[in-house]
Amino acid sequence: MPRELLIQVPPEVAAQQPLLIPHLAKLMHVSPADITHVAILKRSVDARQKAVKINLKVAVYLNEAYNESAVLLPEYREVSNSREVIIIGAGPAGLFAALQLIELGLKPIVLERGKDVQERRRDLKAINRDHIVNEDSNYCYGEGGAGTYSDGKLYTRSKKRGDVDRILRLFVGFGASPEIMVEAHPHIGTNKLPKIIKAMRDKIIEHGGEVLFNTRVTDILVKSNAVEGVATQNGSTIKADKVILATGHSARDIFELLDRKKIHIEAKPFALGVRAEHPQKLIDSIQYSCDFNSGRGEFLPPAPYAIVKQVNGRGMYSFCMCPGGVIAPCATSPGEVVTNGWSPSKRDQETANSGIVVELKLEDFKPFAKHGALAGMEFQKAIEQKAWHLAGETQRVPAQRMVDFTQNKLSADIPKTSYVPGTTPVELGQVFPGFLTQVMREGFTEFGKAMRGYLTNDAILHAPESRTSSPVRIPRNPETLEHVQIKGLYPCGEGAGYAGGIISAAIDGEKCALKCV
Ligand code: FAD
């Protein structure tokens, strides 16, 4: 039996077995030659002291053989002729629901408005280079959903470790690095995600499921308060008495459809703000207390940060921070701009970006009250459209240097940032309602006190970061997970208000599938 130990070591020891083995041997009073293998079970960075340390949980094998066990996928069944369940949306919620259905012996029919991962790349290029937004294929829509061209951070606030580990194991089974099972803050990276997503699709098809791209659902067919199937934009209808609705937080047409059909939905508070970009070297120097010029060294990863402050009774916090990452144009319709961030697996870009957002309350949506349950969505849309207008009606975004923003001063110039479509200098107070601007001005000042060096004119704010979570909740029965009114309709994932991020969306997809039996 291996011996498990919790140790704290310098980064260079954690990264190199020839240093780690003698360190462990000394600790365990054995000879290095007795250690046949060291398996890292968990790894995290402890940057609280001046000298950064790595926390490791290790299993040390003494004089015994070590057999690496491959991560095996569950047994998927052949479902070509099984009962069909429609899944709308091929994001993490939809894909993990489909795989779970196949495990259960049911046939998923996945309907996705966007294109497959490969084809989707062209549309991302068109947004970045030509400012053209395809309403069905963009950073939020297409195979893999909003998670495909993301940072692929795989951490969640979910306390259910078993559920999280199962999703991580499946990701590894479909091609992610086993390291994600070890890291305290695992991530996959934009360059690796598409292959993993394709492997999931191949598995669904191999076992008799269907995945239809370029298939936007335009109606949900309901009779006597029970779902009967869906209609698609190409005029066809597909029948099934169970429909998992996993269309994500940007599917405004779906929210409008439900509202029009008087299928109950509710406005939901979310958070909104800006995406801040700093030089990664600056964040490293703040987080690791290292010299800006000599840098963090070769054994530490680009530093992340997480910060939260209460300002005027509202939380202002960092969201989806991407070390060594890039800011992406995430609009889903022409006439709006939206930001978010991604990073490659190595996180080797020179900039660090993070959403910095303020929590909203339902009462903030009052000016849009005539839209009923869609008031929050209209609030969000109005800010995205205003930003588009102020920045010149392309995919350029309004931008301002951070100190200038706190001082209500238009920046004289904006240096080139990682946001490829470009920026326009705008006083960002013009983009947001006054109360939000006020909170952000005070909040950034507070952030500067908590993280010395953070409040700087070398940091550029891009507006807006507005798709943090769904502005609508689609209520469901907590037991059956069916919509409160409509039998057989399963509101699922982030768009319905039951997830926030890749892992929790995947968990919710599986939960809904389990209820379809
Ligand atoms: P989505 O992923 O939004 O998927 C919904 C799918 O439904 C889409 O593919 C869409 O095309 C499809 N659809 C919508 N309407 C229709 C229709 N009418 N008919 C058919 N199909 C439809 N989360 C993390 O945990 N870690 C990260 O690092 C991270 N980084 C991100 C970076 C970016 C750039 C973005 C945009 C998001 C990021 N997120 C991240 C958020 C994460 O991607 C989402 O939380 C997650 O994808 C939600 O999963 P979902 O399946 O519920 O919805």
From TrEMBL:
SUPFAM superfamilies per UniProt: FAD/NAD(P)-binding domain
Alphabetic keyword roster: Flavoprotein, Oxidoreductase
FAD-dependent oxidoreductase 2 FAD-binding domain: residues covered: 85-115
Transmembrane segments: none
Residue ranges constituting the FAD dependent oxidoreductase domain according to the UniProt record: 195-263
Keyword Flavoprotein attributed: yes
Name the record gives this protein: FAD-dependent oxidoreductase
Species this chain originates from: Flavobacterium rhizosphaerae
